[in-house]
Amino acid sequence: MDVMxxxxxxxxxxxxxxxxxxxxxxxxxxxxxQHNLFLARVAAxxxxxxxxxxxxxxxxxxxxxxxxxxxxxAAANSVAVGESLHRMPESMEAMAAGEIGYAHxxxxxxxxxxxxxxxxESVLINKARENSPGKFHYICTHYRHAADPQRYAEEQAxxxxxxxLKLSKWMDGTVLLSGQFDPEGGAVLLTRLEPMARKTxxxxxxxxxxxxxxxxxxxxxxxxxxxxxxxxxxxxxxxxLAGAPAADxxxxxxxxxxxxxxxxxxxxxxxxxxxxxxxxxDVGRSKRVVSEPTRRALWARDGSCxxxxxxxxxxxxxxxxxxxxxxGGATDLDNLVLxxxxxxxxxxxxxxxxxxxxxxGILVIPPTVTFGPPARGPD
Length: 379
Prior knowledge:
This protein is an alpha+beta fold. Helix content is about 50%, strand content about 15%. The strands form four sheets. Strands 4-3-5-6 form a four-stranded mixed sheet.
């Protein structure tokens, strides 16, 4: 049966055998993929022209979104695929052979767009054949980190800067929340909320959204245990070596080596360390980083975040290694300083430097800027 005929004849579809129905679906998906590929070529050509401007739209993506009845993300993906086809000949052949789908092609195109000249299709094409589009996207994030760890870290740093949480009140006192979180921040939130939002028994008839809301209130009130995030990293990633993959974090996408460095400093993580052959060589909990006696002494000595003019209390701060233990720094009081979450992030991902003076004072040095806008200072 012709695929289009089957799509328009409900009675005939219902009369198909299981194998015939499955074959019709698969062939229909291949037709869809080829059609999407054709539309991607058209979209890329439209993006080069001024049709959007003549019609009063703000961008080619906006024109494609509106006239194609698509989301903005789907429109942008279509243009990205069309513009990257000349860099993906093996992917196009694989899709024509039914080995991968258009969704794989979209991930490949976005990876090519992100990496520029560093993109090598031959490294990824077999991974695309062997994995679903979702898993392939996950693999490509590791590939992007290995190819350009600095840009990967900068993108994650930008995501942190884009954190937003909007709170507004109705007249009856109801509070409305909306916002967005970077992958790491989202994982922290999910890690704390997930165990607290589980059903409490057979008579718990709350839906998931209500349980999440109740868990958030309970967490803010001090309930629950300290969040433990699992991070799986290679030694090469921990050391920030060139070509190292990103680190895997539970409930999130892979994170950069700079984020791992900060989390490994002193954070609520469970770490799994792998060697070059992916063999587990170390499993440890966060308490192994700074002992409780040392932490109590640190809280008593520093009292709060030591960043100049910051008064975040010790309970909101982490123990930062002035000389990181990855580079031989000792986990003792003389090499530790309390930093709140934001300033701890600024030292690692934000590229600020922190130096302890001979008399115990703290000096912070902003990142060196050679071009572009000046570095953002601390709040």
